[in-house]
Amino acid sequence: MEVKTPFDLAKAQENSNSLKKKTKFVSLYTKEGQDKLAVLIPGRHPCDCLGQKHKLINNCLICGRIVCEQEGSGPCLFCGTLVCTREEQDILQRDSNKSQKLLKKLMSGTENSGKVDISTKDLLPHQELRFKSGLEKAIKHKDKLLEFDRTSIRRTQVIDDESDYFASDSNQWLSKIERETLQKREEELREFRHASRLSKKITIDFAGRKIVEDENPLAEYHSRLDETIQAIANGNLNQPLTKLDRSSEEPLGVLVNPNLYQSPPQWVDQTGATSQKKAFHSAGSELEFNSYRHQLRIQDEEFQEGFDGGWCLSMHQPWASLLVRGIKRVEGRSWYTPHRGRLWIAATAKRPSPQEVSELQTTYRFLRGKDVEFPNDYPSGCLLGCVYLTDCLSQNQFKDQYPDMSQESDSPFVFICRNPQEMIVKFPIKGNPKIWKLDSKIHQGAKKGLMKQNKAV
Q1: How confident is the model at residue 238 (pLDDT cuts 50, 70, 90)?
Q2: Residue that terminates a domain, selected from 59, 82, 108
């Protein structure tokens, strides 16, 4: 008889419990959490796991496709762009023999990269025939949709009977002439709409051996912009649309606001436009109308002076201070500017030498021919003031129009400046080439810090 100790009984009971608790399932994941069902097939094959089942290689930088380990490094299976890991990318950027071998290895399977190419697939005859027929149907359907979209305006056009030609008799606001014109136009369109096929135009090209038919014979019928309706709506049925008689129009009647209780501004001809108008009157009504429109333009210099866009010009000292003081009246440049109106002047950071200041003062004493009060100092790197730019002339035009100032500048283009204004407090500022725009905060502060300047002209 076998005697069992308490230790043997406990061990036997533990073994029996382990047999009862035997697992009845198989885990699909390893201890690290990897999927055991993710099978890696040899070679490059399309996979839509998005990097969830296989390791991620990279994303295609062109089409954005997520390339996993099953698809492998190489040309993208969608667009053909090279996709590789970071380590392989570092090797390719070295431009060494190893990188060239790796590039050749990765791009070796370009022909068999898996892109959808019907010509390289092995199709059976009936499959190829079905594919071609499906492609032809798709192309026809595409053309049908494009044609449907192209003609949607004509098909969706709403004909309002109350405003169409067919309601011309019931419109009590039409005159007798307008009513007759609309009825005549209605008959023409009816004949055109219900015309016989015998009147259809067909062009026969014997040299090219082809027949050309009229593509859209009803385009005129469906036209929304009819000349007759436009003429009646504008009230000039009996006059051509391009040559209207504007002599009966009041010169300034359409420009006067009826809510204003004061006389309208009167045009004062200071450029001799009246004599030019009489001289060109014999050339035709078109030139006369252009001259009439030219007189309607508002030539208000005070309005232009009041408009300030914050444009600034950087200049070296001492020329900048002389221009703001009104001693220097023009400024030369090698480029043209269309800017007119207020122009702010900023001094560059370069400090002038005493010799330059002395020579320039001597020059302007000789040019002006009178005692000129020059500035005591010439600050640099700051905003000095502003002038009013009236014109930008070439050197030849400048000499013809301003012979008394022709010695002040010999540059290809000359800025004519007047109404200089100097600032009480000079703002520190950094200049830019050519004409540039001031900062909005500096601009607002500069306008408040201007003082009237006595002209030295």
Answers
A1: low
A2: 108
- Contacts of 350-356 with C-beta under 8 Å, sequence gap 24+, read 350/316, 350/317, 350/380, 351/317, 351/378, 351/380, 352/316, 352/317, 352/318, 352/378, 352/380, 356/318
Q: pLDDT, tens digit, for every residue of 47-91?
A: 988 888 888 999 999 999 999 999 999 999 888 889 999 999 999
Domains: count for the chain = 2
Is the preceding omega at residue 354 within 30 degrees of 0, hence cis? Answer: no
Residues 6+ apart with CB under 8 A from 190: none
Residue 396, phi then psi, degrees to nearest 5 = -70, -45
Cβ atoms 398, 414 nearer than 8 A: yes
- Higher pLDDT: 125 or 235? It is 125
What is the phi-psi region of residue 41: left when phi exceeds 0, alpha when psi lies from -120 to 50, beta otherwise?
A: beta
Kindly state whether residue 327 falls inside one of the protein's structural domains. yes
Q: Which domain holds residue 80?
A: 42-108
The model carries a pTM of 0.37
One-letter amino acid at 178 equals E
Determine the 3-state secondary structure of 100 from DSSP: helix
Domain end among 62, 77, 108: 108
Amino acid at 360: L
Say if residue 206's pLDDT is above 80: yes
177, 237 contact by CB (below 8 A): yes
**Confidence tier at 357 by pLDDT (50, 70, 90):** confident
Residue 351 lies in a domain: yes
CATH code for position 442: 2.30.130.30
